[in-house]
Amino acid sequence: MSAFYEVAALLILASIAGALGLKLKQPVIVSFILVGMLAGPAGFDIVRSTEHLELLSGLGVTLLLFLVGLKLDLNLVRTLGTVALNTGLGQIVFTSVIGFLICLALGMPPLASVYVAVAITFSSTIIIVKLLSDKRELDALHGRIALGFLIVQDLAVVIAMAVMSAITAGAAGGDGLGGALMGLAAGAVPFLLLWLFVSKVATRVLDGIAKAPELLIVFALGLAAAFAALGDYLGFSKELGGLVAGVALASTPFRESIASRLASLRDFLLVFFFISLGAHLDLRLVGDAVGEALILSAFVLIGNPLIVMVIMGAMGYRKRTGFLAGLTVAQISEFSLIFVAMGVALGHVSAEAAGLVTLVGIITIAVSTYMILYSQPLYAFIEKYLGIFERKIPHREGEITEGPAGEKYDVLLFGLGRYGRALHAKFSEYGLRVLGVDFDPDVIRQWRRAGGDAIYGDLQDPDMCETLPMEGVRLAIIAVPPHEIGVTHDDPRGSLVVALRNGNFTGQIAAIARSETDLALLRTKGADIVLSPFADAAERAMERIFGIGLETGRPPVTLTSAESEGRAG
């Protein structure tokens, strides 16, 4: 069968499985991985042209991390570097040490225990970034922290792979570990120089080609692929190469245009990544490892989030932030399978160990996907038990969660995007005091630098309303676009309306609607005013066109039927 026929069959299977998954309210990621398992060698063995599938998969992963890099402000390293480093390294040490002891207790040989313990240490950056992007939580505080320590983990993966390559080279008579590490260090120099070149010259280059949108997209794709290829060639991962390419263009004024145009292509190519991941999960190697896999899976699903919560709680973060960030490390990575496969190739571990890690991967990826998608109900269910993970004063979030002391406001404005900024300008003209609320820490800092009052707030946080200064507030405006969260189809706007009412807010509540369904939902939840930005803008435009409220003093525009027909002709 030709590669084209295989790809066509996989897309049809993915469409059917995805539709069934949506009907049953199951994550599409799990559906696509199941398609890969069914189409792989352990299933119907449809996939024969694995090199083509790997190519599409690699492009999808590169593009995903490239788009993440486009939105990655370098200030993130400065503001969140400490917590990212502490949680990333802390989780690695905890999982590898405790995992090694668990493996020994299960009767595994010491060397195999080392391999399995290291393998279950890595978490999947690709899956987590995709889930957080779908939930629109990548820019939230916990999303940014999670991205930070996942990058730390990726760097640890690079080092682990370098050590493995050194062992392989030593076995073949090479230079060993020292040569491999020197090669990595030498390879980092041109990588850094190329990144500096692109970061300094990119804006001028893009100015010249942005007049042709197609050329702009081709350039962005070429840059992402080039960085990924260079990273892979120098001993880094393709993922880190794509991420660096995105960061190099993050300071240009074209990043939003590039990101919006490439989002759909990213989602299409990632289908092949998840199918490829499922195809590599060979259930024929599992054997009698079910009991051991369940124990190690429980350790990854529970132990990893716990250590993240402990570290973040000790550093002064709220228990909710620690919990949501901790869920992102409750699975193992695709690199885990590659790492243990290298051990099998070297003869250090048996195929049964590879089967064990494969089964742990299947269990943890599937279960953690549900945990992340249903993170809010899960948090609400166990919140009362999480008090030990929060300091009496969570000072780390105090900077962005507290407004000016003693201030009173007329309006609470949720969402500080373009529409929110326009509303704020109008309220200021009328002399009203406005407190902005947003989930993006960078937006909060920018808003404050511009002279506005703003605090951090996540619409899905059930405790958020308790921290808001509601005394004297006459109006609350939810100026965020309508969107559903995961497979739960839960719109946070409706939840916020209910939370405000339950919090004894006595003022009026206004919210944005984009459809009749939106309008009915918000009315049902208790919104007093429903804003329709497009309809309102069209009405205002018609008022100006036909002379209502014209400031020029000219006669209003009047069109009779005859004039209309004449102009139409």
Task: Outline the fold blueprint.
Blueprint: H1 3-23, H2 28-39, H3 50-70, H4 75-105, H5 110-119, H6 125-134, H7 141-171, H8 176-209, H9 213-233, H10 238-249, H11 255-279, H12 290-315, H13 319-326, H14 334-345, H15 351-373, H16 375-382, H17 398-401, E1 411-414, H18 418-429, E2 434-438, H19 441-449, E3 453-456, E4 475-478, H20 492-502, E5 508-512, H21 516-525, E6 529-531, H22 533-545, H23 561-568
Parallel strand pairs: 1-2, 1-4, 2-3, 4-5, 5-6
SSE string, helix = H, strand = E?
HHHHHHHHHHHHHHHHHEHEHEEHEHEHH
Derived from helix and strand composition plus strand pairing, the structural class reads mainly alpha
Q: Could you estimate the helical fraction of the residues in percent?
A: 55-70%
- Give the CATH level 1 class of the largest domain: Mainly Alpha
Low-confidence stretches: 557-569
Oligomer description: single chain
Biggest beta sheet summary: 6 strands, parallel
User: Which architecture of the largest domain does the CATH hierarchy give at level 2?
Assistant: Up-down Bundle
**What's the gyration radius in Å?**
26 Å
Helical region count?
23
Give the N-terminus to C-terminus distance in angstroms.
Answer: 58 Å
Question: How much of the sequence is in beta strands?
Answer: under 5%
What is the overall pLDDT average? 77
What are the salient characteristics of this protein?
569 residues; Rossmann fold; Na+/H+ antiporter like fold; 6 strands; globular; single chain
